[in-house]
Write a structure and sequence with these properties.
The structure holds two protein chains of two kinds. Chain A is of the alpha/beta class. Chain A has ten helices and ten strands. In chain A, strand 9 and strand 10 form a beta hairpin. In chain B, about 80% of the residues lie in helices and about 0% in strands. The chains are: A alpha/beta, B mainly alpha. Chains A and B meet through helix 2 and helix 3 of A and helix 13, helix 14 and helix 17 of B.
Chain lengths: ~250, ~575
C-alpha cells in the first residue's frame, strides 16, 4: 500500500545552520501523526518542505507516491495545510476566501459553494460568512483557514499548532473532525505543544530535536516498558528539557 | 512617570539602532544616502529662499502688490513671511502627525504588552507621542529651518532671529502634534482605526499629488502663477494669519522683532508664544491621554469599531450575478486564473491604501487631458498627426503609471498570505497569466479611455482613435510583461502597509528608467518608422505603416516575453527567504 506521505532523508540548511537533518518518515492513510519538539526544533520547517513552501536542500518528499519537487501541482491537490499563524486575505469575506481556494483547486462553483457553506456551518461561521475576515478574531481566522484546507477533500492534512487560540468547543470540534477524516482514510500530521492532545489523539508520535527525528512510535513504543511514564516525561528526557529542573531547584 | 517614559524611548532607540545594524551593507548605505539627501535638500531650500527673496524684490511682484488695492504694505508683507513659513510648518506638522499618530498609538503590535506592563499609561502615551513626532519635527526643521535662515540672510536679519528659529519651530510642531493627538482620539471614536488609516492614506496621497501638480493644474486652467489675483490672495492669507488672536502670529512677530533687535517686543512676544505653545501642548496632551485608554479599550473589544463590515446585499447580488454570468462568458478561462484576478481586483478595490496609489495616474490623466484640450492647433494633416502622436504618448504614459504600480506590486501584493498561493495546486503558467492580466487589463483600459476622450474633444476620426488604442494595447502588452518581471525580481512579502510594496530606491529608479526608455523607443518605432519611410524613401503610406506596426509589435513581444521567461524561473523559490 502506498504511503500518503513519505519523507526520504530530507534536509534543510539555511547557510551554515542545519534546520532539519536526514529526516525520514512514512505516514499511511487513516493515521494521525503527532509531531512534537521544542521551539525551533524544525517542526514548522519540515511542514513547509512537505507543502512546498520550502525546497529541501536534500532528500525527497512524496505525497501518494508523487515527488513534490517534480509534480508540485498534482501533489498539492492532495494536501490541506493550516499554518501556525492563519494569515488570510483580510479584505475578502469568509465565503469569498473559500470560493477562492476552491477555484485554485478547480472545484466546480456550485459544489464549492455547497461545501463552503457546509464547512462554515460546521465551524460556527455561517453567520459571518459575508463579513470581511479583518473583523474576525484569531480563533475565527483559524477556523476559516481550516475550512479552506478541507474544502477540496485532501488526502493529507497538515496542521501546525491547530488548537492555538481556539475555544474549548472549537478545539473539541477539530478533534472530532480529525477523527472523522482519518476514518475515511485521510492522513493527518499535526504539531502541538499540548502534550495531552498528542497523547489522546495521535496514533503515532515523532519527537524532533535540533532538526533530527530522535524518536518515532506509538505511545506504548515510546514508553518502552515503563508503563507509568507520561508523554511529558518522555519528551523532556529525549529533548534534554529535564536538565532545566536542576537550576529551578537551585533557585528554590 | 518620566523614568518609564525615558526607558520606553531608550527601548525605541535601541530598536531603531538594531534594525539599522542588522541590515545588509547595501541597505545601510541607502539609509545613510537618504539622510544625506535630506540634508542636501535642506541646504538647497536655504539657497532657493535666496531666489524667493530676489523674486519678492522683483518688479512684477511689487507692481502686483501696488495694483492690488491691499491694505497691507509691501514691507509689512515681507515682515509677515516668517509667519507664513511658521504657519506652513505648523499645518504640515498637524496633518503629518495625524496619520503617524494613528499608526503609532493604535495600530502597532506592542500596545497590549505595554499597557499590561507595570508602567503608567501616561508614560506609554507620552513615549508613543514623542517617538512619532520626533522624526516629523526633525524633518520640518530641516525643511522650514533653512527657508527661514535663507530669508533672514537675504534680508540681513540680526542674530537673535536665527537663535529663535529652532525654538519656535519645535514649539509649533509640538503644539501641532498635541492637536493631532486630540484629533486622532476623536477620530477613532467615530471610525475604526484601520479604516481611518486607510482613508487618511487615500486623502493624503491625493492631496500631496494635487499640491505637487498645482502648477500644471493652474496651467491647465490658463492661470498665471504670479497673477495679481494670486499675489493679492497670498497677501490676504498672510494678513489673516497675522490676526492678533492667533498664537502663531505671536511667534511670527517675535521672529520679526528678534530680526530687528527689538528686544522688548521680542521678549514679550516670545514669552507669550512659549506660554501659549506649551499650554496648548499640555492641554491637548492631557485631554488626548484621557481619551486614549478608553479608545484603546474599544479597539480591543471590537477591532472593527463595533460594526462588522458586512458586504452589502447589492454587492452580494452583483457577486452572484457575476458568477452566473462568468460561467457563460469567461468560463473558458481556467478557474485558478479567474480566481486570482478576481481576488486581486477585490483586494485593490477594498483597501483604500491601494487606491491612494492607483488614483494618482488618474489625476495625471485629468491634468494632462485638460492641458492638452487647451492647445489650439490648425486643422491640418500635420497638426492632426502631431495631435494624434501626443495623445497616444499621453495615453501610454498614463497607462504606464498604472502598469508600473500593478506590475511591481503584482506578487508583493500577496504579502504574508503568499503561502495560500504557494501551497495551492496552481500551475506556474496560470499564476503568470493571472498576474499579467492584473497588470495589462486596468492599465490598457485607462489608456484607451484617455485616448477615446481626447479623440472626442479633438474631433479625431474613429479609425485613427482605434489605431492608437491598438498601438497602446500592443505597447502595454510588452510593458506589462516587463513590469511583471521586475515585480517578480523585487517581490517582497514582509510589508505591513500596502504602500510599502512599491519598489523603492535603486530598483524603483532602475525600473522607471528602463521602462521609460523602452516606451520612447517603441513609440519611436511605431510612429517614426512610417514617417521616415514615407518621407525619405517614398514608401506607400500603407506599407510604411505596416512596417512600423510590425517592427513595433515584434519589439513589444520581445520586451514583454524575454524578461518574463528569465524572471519566471524565480517563482519556484519566491518568498522562501521571508518564509
Amino acid at each position: 500500500m502506498t504511503s500518503v506521505l513519505e519523507l526520504d532523508r530530507i534536509e534543510k540548511r539555511f547557510g551554515a545552520k542545519t534546520a532539519v537533518a536526514d529526516l525520514s518518515l512514512s505516514l499511511p492513510g487513516g493515521e494521525i501523526f503527532g509531531f512534537l519538539g521544542p521551539n525551533g526544533a524544525g517542526k514548522t520547517t519540515t511542514f513547509k518542505m512537505i507543502v512546498g513552501l520550502l525546497k529541501p536542500t536534500a532528500g525527497t518528499v512524496r505525497i501518494l507516491g508523487m515527488d513534490v519537487a517534480e509534480l508540485p501541482v498534482e501533489a498539492k491537490r492532495e494536501i490541506g495545510f493550516v499554518p501556525d499563524t492563519p494569515l488570510l486575505y483580510e479584505k475578502l469575506t469568509a465565503l469569498e476566501y473559500l470560493r477562492f481556494v476552491a477555484d485554485l483547486h478547480e472545484i466546480p462553483r456550485p459544489e464549492a459553494d455547497r461545501k463552503g457553506r457546509e464547512l462554515l456551518q460546521m465551524f460556527d461561521l455561517a453567520e459571518v460568512a459575508e463579513d470581511l475576515i479583518d473583523s474576525f478574531s484569531h480563533g475565527m481566522k483559524q477556523k476559516t483557514a481550516l475550512a479552506g484546507a478541507l474544502i477540496h477533500d485532501p488526502r493529507l492534512l497538515i496542521l501546525d499548532e491547530p488548537t492555538v487560540g481556539l475555544d474549548p468547543k472549537s478545539a473539541r470540534l477539530i478533534k472530532d473532525i480529525l477523527r472523522r477524516l482519518t476514518r475515511s482514510g485521510v492522513a493527518v500530521i499535526l504539531s502541538t505543544h499540548i502534550l495531552e492532545i498528542a497523547e489522546q489523539m495521535c496514533d503515532r508520535i515523532g519527537i524532533i530535536n535540533r532538526g533530527e527525528l530522535i524518536a518515532v512510535g506509538t505511545m506504548d513504543e515510546l514508553r518502552s516498558g515503563a508503563a507509568d511514564r507520561s508523554l511529558e516525561d518522555i519528551f523532556l528526557q529525549l529533548t534534554g528539557g529535564d536538565s532545566y529542573f536542576e537550576p529551578a531547584a537551585v533557585a528554590e | 512617570m518620566w523614568s518609564a517614559t525615558g526607558k520606553l524611548l531608550v527601548l525605541r532607540l535601541r530598536l531603531v539602532w538594531n534594525t539599522f545594524k542588522h541590515r545588509r551593507p547595501g541597505q545601510k548605505l541607502t539609509t545613510l544616502f537618504g539622510f544625506a539627501v535630506i540634508f542636501v535638500f535642506g541646504g538647497l531650500i536655504g539657497f532657493a529662499t535666496w531666489g524667493l527673496v530676489r523674486f519678492i524684490d522683483s518688479e512684477p511682484f511689487r507692481r502686483g502688490f501696488q495694483n492690488s488695492e491691499l491694505t497691507i504694505g509691501f514691507d509689512a508683507f515681507i515682515d509677515q513671511l516668517p509667519l507664513l513659513l511658521l504657519s506652513a510648518a505648523f499645518i504640515m506638522g498637524l496633518l503629518a502627525n495625524i496619520s503617524v499618530l494613528l499608526q503609532t498609538l493604535y495600530l502597532t503590535g506592542d500596545m497590549e504588552f505595554l499597557l499590561s506592563a507595570p508602567i503608567p499609561t501616561r508614560a506609554v502615551f507620552l513615549s508613543k507621542l514623542l517617538q512619532s513626532v520626533f522624526p516629523t519635527i526633525l524633518l520640518l526643521c530641516l525643511l522650514a529651518g533653512p527657508a527661514l535662515v535663507g530669508l533672514g540672510y537675504g534680508q540681513g536679519y540680526d542674530l537673535g532671529y536665527y537663535l529663535a528659529i529652532p525654538v519656535f519651530l519645535s514649539l509649533l510642531v509640538l503644539s501641532g502634534a498635541g492637536l493631532a493627538a486630540l484629533a486622532v482620539m476623536l477620530l477613532v471614536r467615530v471610525v475604526p482605526p484601520r479604516r481611518a488609516a486607510e482613508a487618511i492614506a487615500l486623502v493624503g496621497g491625493v492631496s500631496a499629488f494635487l499640491c505637487s501638480q498645482s502648477g500644471q493644474l493652474m496651467a491647465a486652467g490658463n492661470q498665471d502663477f504670479f497673477s495679481q489675483e494670486r499675489i493679492a490672495g497670498l497677501a490676504g492669507i498672510t494678513q489673516s494669519l497675522g490676526a492678533a488672536w492667533n498664537p502663531i502670529s505671536w511667534a511670527g512677530r517675535a521672529l520679526s522683532a528678534w530680526a530687528e533687535s527689538d528686544w522688548l517686543s521680542a521678549s514679550l512676544l516670545s514669552a507669550a508664544t512659549i506660554l501659549a505653545g506649551a499650554g496648548i501642548f499640555i492641554l491637548t496632551l492631557t485631554a488626548a491621554e484621557r481619551m486614549y485608554l478608553s479608545g484603546w479599550s474599544r479597539l480591543v473589544i471590537s477591532p472593527s469599531g463595533g460594526r462588522t463590515r458586512r458586504m452589502n446585499r447589492r454587492s452580494r447580488g452583483a457577486d452572484a450575478g457575476t458568477i452566473t454570468a462568468s460561467s457563460r462568458w469567461w468560463s473558458w478561462i481556467p478557474a485558478p486564473i479567474r480566481a486570482l484576478v478576481l481576488k486581486d481586483f477585490r483586494l485593490f478595490r477594498r483597501d483604500l491604501r491601494n487606491l491612494s496609489q492607483l488614483i494618482l495616474p488618474v489625476i495625471m490623466a485629468v491634468i494632462w487631458g485638460l492641458s492638452f484640450g487647451g492647445r489650439d492647433l490648425e486643422n491640418s494633416e500635420i497638426s492632426n498627426r502631431i495631435l494624434g502622436g501626443i495623445g497616444l504618448f499621453m495615453g501610454v504614459m498614463m497607462a504606464w503609471g498604472f502598469a508600473m504600480r500593478f506590475g511591481l506590486g503584482a506578487f508583493s501584493l500577496e504579502g504574508q498570505r503568499w503561502w495560500i498561493i504557494k501551497t495551492a495546486p496552481v500551475r506556474r503558467s496560470h499564476l503568470l497569466v493571472a498576474k499579467y492580466l492584473l497588470v495589462f487589463l486596468p492599465s490598457t483600459a485607462l489608456g484607451a479611455a484617455f485616448i477615446i476622450v481626447l479623440s472626442i474633444f479633438s474631433d479625431r476620426t474613429a479609425a485613427a482613435a482605434a489605431l492608437d488604442i491598438l498601438i497602446l494595447a500592443i505597447v502595454l502588452a510588452g510593458m506589462s510583461g516587463m513590469m511583471l518581471s521586475f515585480g517578480i525580481w523585487t517581490a517582497k512579502f514582509d510589508w505591513k502597509d500596502p504602500r510599502e510594496i512599491q519598489g523603492s530606491g535603486t530598483s524603483g529608479c532602475l525600473v522607471t528608467l528602463i521602462s521609460m526608455l523602452s516606451i520612447f523607443f517603441v513609440l519611436g518605432v511605431f510612429q517614426g518608422v512610417p514617417l521616415v519611410l514615407t518621407l525619405a524613401f517614398e514608401f506607400p503610406a500603407v506599407w510604411a505603416y505596416a512596417v512600423g506596426f510590425g517592427a513595433g509589435s515584434l519589439i513589444c513581444l520581445a520586451i514583454g516575453t524575454i524578461p518574463l521567461v528569465f524572471a519566471s524561473g524565480r517563482l519556484d523559490t519566491l518568498g522562501e527567504a521571508g518564509i
